[in-house]
Amino acid sequence: MKRLKMKKLRMWINRVITGILMVLVVAIAGLILSTKLSGGMPDIFGYQLKTVLSGSMEPGIQTGSVIAVKSLNEEELTQLQTGDVITFMEDENLLITHRVIDVKATNSGVQYTTKGDNNNAPDSNPVLAENVVAEYHGFTVPYAGYLINFSQSPNGNILFMIIPGILMLGYSLLTIWRVLRQVEEKQKENPNEANV
């Protein structure tokens, strides 16, 4: 009876470990694939994940954090207020996340004066509403940006894709070996049973 309970416990543990490995491999593969397809950070439930590369918004948003920012429609782009934290396009390949400290309506549209919380002075150029990419709503995962940046590197691909795959394969082979061993033991215990 005790042996049967141990066997059931081992089977349950095997299933749990296999399930966790499968979920990890699929989740990491999905994250890396969506990152590569989008050409940047993945979009999850309407939120884009961005990695913070500077300390301009510390202590609220630390360097190396991942933040979730929500894309804005055209109407929302012109309705931002003082105190909102926005992500905007500074140059063609440079996104910045800073706080709005002033809003001005001009003939060319709404302009936002921004400043990093940790900076001494406001940003030198006002931000046109059309250059705003998204708004930050307070979701931050500290230090996760370092992990995501590493996962996008060749060494990161090896660590997060190939090694879990090898572990999964090794674990599967171990499970198959155990089952075969159990079958052999049963055959040794009951040698008179006919093999089909």
Number of helices: 4
Helix content: 40-55%
Identify the strand order in the major beta sheet: 1-2-3-8-4-5-6-7
Mean pLDDT: 81
How many strands, what sense, and barrel or not for the largest sheet?
Answer: 8 strands, antiparallel
Q: How many DSSP-defined strands?
A: 8
Q: Based on helices, strands and strand pairing, what is the structural class?
A: alpha+beta
Q: Tell me the distance between the termini.
A: 28 Å
Round the Cα radius of gyration to an integer and report it: 26 Å
The shape is rod-shaped
Strand content: 25-35%
Query: Which parts are unreliable, with pLDDT below 50 for 5 consecutive residues or more?
Result: none
N-to-C SSE series?
Answer: HEEEHEEEEEHH
Fold and architecture overview:
- With 196 residues, the protein is of the alpha+beta class.
- Helix content is 43%, strand content 27%.
- The protein has 4 helices and 8 strands, in the order H-E-E-E-H-E-E-E-E-E-H-H.
- It has helices at residues 2-38, 74-77, 144-151, 154-189, and strands at residues 43-44, 47-51, 66-71, 85-91, 94-106, 109-115, 127-128, 132-141.
- An 8-stranded antiparallel sheet has the order 1-2-3-8-4-5-6-7.
- Helix 1 packs antiparallel against helix 4 (154-189).
- The two termini are 28 Å apart.
- The model has no long low-confidence stretch (mean pLDDT 81).
